[in-house]
Amino acid sequence: MSGRPRVYRTEAIVLRRMNLGEADRLLTLFSPDQGKLRVVAKGVRRPGSRKAGHLEPFTQVKLLLARGRELDIITQAESLDLFPGIQKDLELLGQAAYMVELLDRFTVEEGESRPLYLLLTEALGLLESGAPSEALVRYFELRMLDLVGYRPELFRCLGCGNEIRPQDQFFSADAGGVLCPVCGKGQDSVQPISLQALKVLRHYQRSPLKAALAPSVSPLVHAELDKLMLHYLTFQLERDLNAPAFLDRVRALPRPPFQTHSTS
């Protein structure tokens, strides 16, 4: 700890929280200049705590922290964006939870991670503003994979090295990308991927965020990509994710009927 200031300021997104003792919380944060942090918010569960409302999951917050022997301690907290539109919509909440869980699972507690922080904050802002949520989540998956070193190969066959032709292909989570019909045929561990789905993934992979969200994508292609990307992500993590199951339960809930109004 020598040479480091005893207190420091940073912005962060609250990824998750856990109760600690009778009144404290253990928070996992993601910061542009500190990366992932595990810190303590003392007394935040007491009635009247002034920090409590600023430290909810998915909140973007400005913090003052004091270095501790094991965990740093939040001494001041000021919310920059509460993303209230996300908090009020269960499906948006599930999609935000999915992006946050991905970032949490694919990162470790180390150093500066400004591109990942900017990706997450921009994605949460666009999710709240009504951007196409399925496309936004898919873009987030691919860009995050780029930044953490798991970019899937979508342009050349990982078996023979040839450029992929405009036809249906196979996708191998084990190999880390596409296999041509010749190399993928008969392999148990591969999944088929349609030409249209592959085009969508390529577009998301090589486009800036707002350009990636522009084209309309059919529900069938989104459903295909949901299954394929979840398989790839869980294969790389070697564990299941929690948020997709929550999203499935939300989407299975009955929708309220449309209200009709009499004009008589």
Tell me what the structure shows.
The chain is of the alpha+beta class. The protein folds into two domains: 7-82, OB fold (Dihydrolipoamide Acetyltransferase, E2P) (Beta Barrel); 90-251, Recombination protein O, C-terminal domain (de novo design (two linked rop proteins)). The protein is built from nine helices and eight strands. It has helices spanning 84-87, 90-106, 114-129, 133-148, 181-184, 195-206, 209-212, 219-237, 243-251, and strands spanning 7-20, 24-31, 35-41, 60-66, 72-81, 169-172, 177-179, 190-193. The strands form two sheets. Strands 1-2-3-5-4 form a five-stranded mixed barrel. A three-stranded antiparallel beta sheet has the order 7-6-8. A hairpin with a 4-residue loop joins β6 (169-172) and β7 (177-179). α4 runs parallel beside α8 (219-237). The radius of gyration is 21 Å and the shape is elongated. The relative contact order is 0.11. The model is unreliable at 259-264 (pLDDT under 50).
